[in-house]
Write a structure and sequence with these properties.
Elements: E1 5-8, E2 12-13, E3 16-17, E4 21-26, H1 29-38, E5 42-43, E6 49-50, H2 52-55
Antiparallel strand pairs: 1-4, 2-3, 5-6
Bound molecules: zinc ion (ZN).
Length: about 80
């Protein structure tokens, strides 16, 4: 296997389908699902996947990203 697995949202609307795709970087389906679940994707037992907005996922707190340019530079 050479390709990493992407998750595709399986939500279908009246006018089409959700185009959200998650690049997981995983090489096994289980790993891809686990990676998706960590960021709010919903994985159904039958293998269908839904992106966070489609699955009703609403983060209560925004993710905190700490940016550090160099080691030891966090002291201002
Ligand atoms: Zn979606």
């Amino acid at each position: 296997m050479s390709a990493c697995i992407t998750l595709h949202c399986d939500q279908q609307w009246q006018y089409g389908t959700c185009a959200t795709v998650l690049w997981t970087g995983a090489r096994a389906v289980d790993d891809a699902h686990a990676a998706g679940a960590r960021v709010g994707w919903r994985i159904l037992p039958d293998g269908r996947t839904y992106c966070p907005p489609c699955s009703g996922y609403k983060p209560t707190t925004p993710p905190v990203v700490r940016l550090r340019s160099t080691k030891g530079a966090d002291r201002v």
